[in-house]
Amino acid sequence: MGQPDDADVDLAVVLHALGDPVRLALVRRMAEHGESACSPDGVDVPRSTLSNHWRILREAGITQTRRVGKARLMALRRADLDARFPGLLAAVLAEGRR
């Protein structure tokens, strides 16, 4: 399964994806720094586990992936999420700053 269309993004699936601390850290990193490589510096998770986290984020509709040569770059679908669930991402990201 790839990235869902905007209308197919499900709130329960998004919340489940954001409920994991590693995935939430990846989302916060993208919100702050933009695109992320598939193995970002400072994330102490085995590569296979990290790949699974990226897949869950992508399938939930939270991220999109683009290829640059052999590399894959992940980006937050902020505009799509804000349009589908206004204020959700802002609330989730603000919670981490408390």
Automatic annotation (TrEMBL):
InterPro entries: ArsR-like_HTH, HTH_ArsR_DNA-bd_dom, WH-like_DNA-bd_sf, WH_DNA-bd_sf
Superkingdom of origin organism: Bacteria
Organism (species): Streptomyces luteosporeus
Protein name according to UniProt: Helix-turn-helix domain-containing protein
Pfam family, one: HTH_20
Ranges where the HTH arsR-type domain occurs: 13-90
Upper taxonomic lineage: Bacteria, Bacillati, Actinomycetota, Actinomycetes, Kitasatosporales
